[in-house]
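For consistency, the fold was encoded as tokens, as this record shows:
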Amino acid sequence: FFFGMMPMHMYQTDPMVVPPPHKVGCWVVPLGLLVGVAVGVALTTWASAESLYVASAVRTAPALPLQATPLRRLEDPNPLYRLRSGPPPAKPQAKHPGVGPKGPRQTAEDVGSSHHWGFAALLGMSMSALWLALRHPQAAMAEAERELSAVYTPTAPQKLALFAATGAKVIKPKIRGFICTTAHPTGAAAKVQKEIQYVKANPPAAAGPKKVLIIGASTGYGLSTRIATTFGYGASTIGCFFERPSERNKPASAGWYNSVAFEKAAHAAGLYATSINGDAFSDEIKAQTVERIKQDLGQVDLVVYSLASPVRVDPVDNVMYRSVLKPIGQSFENRTLLTDKDQVSTVKLEPASEQEIQDTVKVMGGEDWERWINALSAGGVLAEGAKTVAYSYIGPEMTWPVYWSGTIGQAKKDVEGTASRITAAGACTAYTAVAKAVVTQASSAIPVVPLYITLLFKVMKEKGTHEGCIEQMVRMLGTRLYPAEGGVVTDDEGRIRVDDWEMAADVQEAVAAKWNTIETETLDQDSDYAGYQADFLELFGFGLEGVDYEQPVEVDLPMPSFAPQGESRRAALLGMLAPAAALLGPGAPADAESYVKSLGLRGQTNVDVAGYQRTASGLQILEARLGEGEKVVQVGDRVELELTGRLAGKNGLYFFNTNQTGEPVEYTVGDPNMIAGFTEGLLGMKEKGIRRLVVPEGLGYPDPLEFPGPIPDPVDYAFREEVKSVVNTNSRDCTLVFDVKVVKIRRR
């Protein structure tokens, strides 16, 4: 009947599309009825077959260690279809020949009856569950778990496996460009252990640091320095980093897993190791670190600065600055390697503006390093004779236009100037340590450099002089910063050089000889591209020998040194069935089309909306309510939010809505996986404050669209496709519109 009446309804709705019923013919209703019956029979048959399969499987599964709760006849008060809480009345097992003293067994009667009783139970479950879900959607899941528990009554570990997500999953690398969006905890532990073994096999010849602070301690040279000082010199270490723990059963960042593995190894060896997770650029993390040193170590004798971040929020003006990788003065064109396509290609870069140069120096220059030393000195936690080191890179002339002579080079030169100022201030002696080219997340993003590294690796491995991060740091500490004889070894300009083997004349000549002749077809033959790829995967815990990557692993690993914070991680359940009222209250437009029109967007991402404040990045903000209290959102804060998100390119379609659940969501502000516009829009908000954020394409999702992080992640497949259809299509407006209310700010 439904199928038959559909054309009549459509005709009334849109007569221009569907012909009137009398032109369709009187056969429509009977045919629709037949189709409906056929579909119903098919679904009923399938459901019955499924119930037979499930019932038979339960009865014949001797390995299922459940308490002996027999299947009941339909006349029993079965909570599955009566929706009555509480355990069912006990029945003697003798009445049920399918369950006996020797365990479950199947009989011919059971197979025949399973079909009937299973279908009846399924029908009752479906109708009652539908009624419950429609009337009380938030109670439906809790009720279902209670009733299932009443039937099966599993033991506690089995209950966890049946009704709760344990976090164990098989993790595979997911690579987007020069970034891997997943990380493997077991692989990360194996990588850390490999570096520890190298340090133990190459002990230092002289005494070294005993109390060390590493700023940027979770990956690359920072992590290797922490491992080398801990297991080479027995040092106590404090590591600062900004890494993402596991949330909503997603893997944590590689740096998080590296630090977990390091702390476990250090504690097992009886060595002090603690960590601070937050934005190292902020004054709050500096103050927290000073207090930790006072409480636990008293003073430190070595401070290592190894931060690598594309953005920085200046704590003085609270402005987010962004770095760029560009030449200065003129455009630059050279060969490069497209690692996502395994292709040797040509890249052309336009020169940076003066503002971009200044912003890059602001992010990657020495200003924050100096602020750290000033904070440590003011707190009285720098030991007499303390040293501080910041890592740098110079590289060969072929990379200079995009590196040493480009925007990054200007920042590195500023770091060298900062070292002179720190030393002159007298609190400690500062050095820059120039390391060799290695595969890191940062180096993978620099044009020209990946191709250079693949050629360099092949030449240096053939000569037996190749080093990775841990080999570099062991040599830097043991032969340069703390040599067996004499003082710190530097070049004429005061730099510590451990790039000497890379910059050897014979090595650079061999690399230059292949630079202009290598092609995509000869990539594997003329370079060590395989080694580059292996090193890249190892950054994220993949490709390590002895790790079974087909086995599920626990993704939610706590940091050993972190005290339990007692904060529940409430997953953001997405409202996918119907839009709820916007956070801004009764004044919000009721329908989606009016909502988008009210913003003044009309399908364009760069139009200024009346009444909104437009930032330098293009984000537009409407301050609907200022909020209360003195505390404002800063990078590193943990915030509870009420949040809705809409797609302007889909007439304001909701893809994220906490109003559906009544539960706020929690995020760490500045998480590298947050979309940039959302992070910027949160800064400066107070508790109970409300903003509407109009996020343009450049500050929203990447293209091609992936969902690596917590803001926002429409996990429902259909809605993922809706978002992708907008963000990955140039012809549609990719603007995202968020209504955000800050419920609580937690300072870390």
Remarks:
- The chain has a mean pLDDT of 76.
- The radius of gyration is 31 Å.
- The chain is about 40% helix and 15% strand.
- Residues 246 and 252 are 4 Å apart (CA to CA).
